[in-house]
Amino acid sequence: MQEQPDPLFTPGLTARVELTVTDADTAQAIGSGDVPVLGTPRVLALAEAATVAATATALPAGMTTVGVRVELDHRAPTSIGRTVRAVARLAKVDGRRLLFEVRVADGDDVVAEGRVERVLVDRHRFVERAATA
């Protein structure tokens, strides 16, 4: 029987990123609403940044991950000047598919949580394919 190679990523892998909310991060500025609080698209971008950070050090040369699916519950508003942190934890690996559980918090308060699925791809082929589409 042939041995399987060690997986590049193993469940439990985590990363954290932080953001201090500015005017540019608000729903008003992004166009996703008309209130001066952290906009949902910015919350999602922060959560995705945490998933990218989690895989960054283990990626083989020439490879990257791309987001393919997101489920996010934005539960609480965050005011300008507050600092939020997004934590991504790799929950499942299925071949090239990576499923992360993400949580965004303002101190002890949960701002958002959900799942982000990413797929491992060849960076050059992916960009080349996008350019010819």
UniProtKB/TrEMBL annotation:
* PANTHER family in the cross-refs: BLR0278 PROTEIN, THIOESTERASE DOMAIN-CONTAINING PROTEIN
Full protein name: Thioesterase
Coiled-coil regions, chain positions:
none
Domain (Fluoroacetyl-CoA-specific thioesterase-like) ranges: 21-123
Q: Which InterPro entries does this entry report, sorted A to Z? A: FlK, FlK-like_dom, HotDog_dom_sf
User: What SUPFAM superfamilies does this protein's entry cite?
Assistant: Thioesterase/thiol ester dehydrase-isomerase
User: Which positions, given as ranges, span the membrane?
Assistant: none
